[in-house]
Amino acid sequence: MAKTVLIVDDVPTVRNLAKFALTKAGFVILEAENGSVGLAVAKSKQIDLVISALNMPVMGGFDLAKAMKADPKTQNIPIFILTKDTNPDDAQIGKEIGIRAWIIKPFVPDKLLAAVKKALE
């Protein structure tokens, strides 16, 4: 059965690029335009991994990750953060929250695919 990845980003172009790379490899992709919508999707669907932007309107990636880690239904879903931010303090905060991978934009689709495959092995 195909694994399902939720891509949460307020920029449609970023979602489309990640979706293209992962769909080509056989993943089922769900999308959300902010963390609040992403959280609702993660709670209502069977999700295997979340890739989320850090900075978004309504709810950003850290708040999404905190909410997911606090909910028994979503707490074990691996979360990747996709960001332009290279601040080491943010990376440390992400690690403390339980972020599995920190991916810098612009990303190389093949590297994103490799990281997703590795996380879901």
Automatic annotation (TrEMBL):
UniProt keyword annotations, A-Z: Phosphoprotein
Coiled coil: none
Domain Response regulatory: start-end pairs: 4-120
A biological process term (GO) from this entry: phosphorelay signal transduction system
Gene3D superfamilies tied to this protein: 3.40.50.2300
SUPFAM superfamilies named among the record's database cross-references: CheY-like
Entry keyword Cytoplasm: no
Pfam families, per the entry: Response_reg (PF00072)
InterPro entries given in the database record: Bact_response_regulator, CheY-like_superfamily, Sig_transdc_resp-reg_receiver
Protein name per UniProt: Response regulatory domain-containing protein
Organism: Silvanigrella aquatica
